[in-house]
Amino acid sequence: MTTAVKARAKPRSAPAKRTMEWDLRLYVAGQSPQSLAAFSNLKALCEAHVSGRYRIEIVDLLKTPQLSREDQIVAVPTVVRKLPPPMKKVIGNLSNAEKALVGLQLRPAARRPKE
Amino acid sequence: MRQQSKKAARTLSALVKSPSGVRGLDAITGGGLPRGRPTLVCGGSGCGKTLFGMEFLVRGILEYGEPGVFMCFEERERDLAENVASLGFNLPRLIAGKKLIVDQVKIERAEIAETGEYSLDGLFIRLGAAIEAVGAKRVVLDTIETLFGALNNQGILRAELRRLFEWLKDKGVTTIVTGERGDGTLTRQGLEEYVSDCVILLDQRVTDQIATRRLRIVKYRGSVHGTNEYPFLIDQHGFTVLPITNISLNYKVSTEIISTGIPKLDAMFVGGGYFRGGTLLLSGSSGTGKTSVSAHFADAACRRGERCIFFAFEESPDQILRNMRSIGLDLSRWVSAGLLRFAASRPTSAGLETHLSGMLQAIDDFKPHVVIIDPLSSFQSAGSELDVKAMLMRVIDLFKSRGITTMCTSLTRGGQAEESVSGVSSLMDSWIVLRNVEQGGERTRALFIIKSRGKKHSNQARELLMTDKGIDLIDVFVGPEGTILTGSARVTQQQADKLAAVGLQHDVRRKKAHLLHRRKAIEAQIAQLQAELAAEVGEMGMEIEEEEATASGRTAVRAALAAERERAGRRNIAAAVNGGRQ
Q: Looking at the 3D structure of chain A, how many domains does it have?
């Protein structure tokens, strides 16, 4: 998992070479069990629903604490759906897949009312 | 409990306090808020929680060199800066100077979905970064309870908040946490559970259309503190708490005597004047001359070269100046000389605390020796009797502690001259009553001294006269039935007395003339008798002389005859013995 994170994590300033349809950012605080769980849960969800059309960027707030202020992060882990708009935020380790799907609206056609 | 006491025993040193910088609060808390611990400030909306926190931070930066972090969950950064700019806080400058960080936490329930476990590490990191960035010693979290509205998982939230406060304690930052007051509880979410070192409750109440803000320290672990409700106010100078009892009745008193500006009133006090630093109450119904007497007081102070503030609550300064000119007092020259300052406002224009603060401000600015409040009683319309009394007590304490001589007037309703406003007379050192005396179809004014602490005074009434040259006091006449005679009655009585005196004088003169006449007559008689006596003596003397001469002549003849006879005898003997004649 660690390698996967590192492989996919990109410096935030560098522009993505190609824009993915699904651009997600995961904020964590170090490699806590919650963070790890959140990442694997998120990855599983993406593979299941938007395989090949997504990108996950990991932001470790312990390394870049200023981002917590800039991106208005209070809880960790937090997943932010940057693309497609509108922006969505989901907090928690995404253990409830159904809720996570609703929160991130990963099913493109799904227009369910929110809980 | 035991654990706590063990903990306390370990630290041993007394609780260290951070001066809050909120004016007046440190007097109640005995030095400030607990250093390095969180303090909960709770209250309803609009009661000044945010401002309290901001004042704490800004004062900390400006006065105690302690940078701060303001984390707001409700207001926007810019709004906040604008809101407190009206109170004289320049947040952008402090932020630019790296003394302050204002961080707005935007958290909207609609934007956030929750799934599974999470922690508030994001907030911790965020706060930690801010604290580090400026080296903050003070932190304000305003209002952290907003999180409860934004996040669903109360269990996590509570655990995380508990952890947050512990973490703040470990960081050693003095923290203020604000909380909205709940129904029957101090805060809606029971924050007082987590923040238990110091809890301050703010409150705003409206009584008779006048709003008063009050502050109470609900608890302060490990420290004595004032337990009362203290009024506080928010004005252009920020947040001020007004402790009623921060002065413990230990001010120095003066024995210096100063004039009241009315020589005959001075004469009524033994010693010829009034104690400096004393408080004089002047009560009377309308039109008895309260303002005029106070104006004399002010005039006398300015004549001595002292500064005087005239707090006028019923008349405008111009009106007072004009009216006093009519009794020959030119106060405008003192105004232009900078010795006299008027501060006029309507009592109902603001709450009592605002008035008090205004007075404080004026006194701090001007540093007067003499203060006049005209009239005190008008405050009754600005608050309840209890509040008014509490405020007056503070005012009087303040003046006394600064050695300011105070004259307050009080309007009493007709016929109840001895009933002073809000029982304030017991706070005052001396009490002069002005009274209207209605007699013989006219009204006149009488002046009494009801009490005077530490000074003997005349017990007699005086009649107060308004002349072109100011106020004059005259001894009143006591009529035949023991009633006081003033005005025309006095003049009549004076006239009658004068007439009686004149009659008496005539009598005396007549008697004296009579006596003189008698004396002259008798003296003449004496002279005549003496003349007669002299004549008699003369006559008798001559007779005596004559008789004596006759007698002596006879004797001489007889002697001559005897001698002749002797001589003849001797001649016979001499012839016989040849002896000499004598």
A: 1
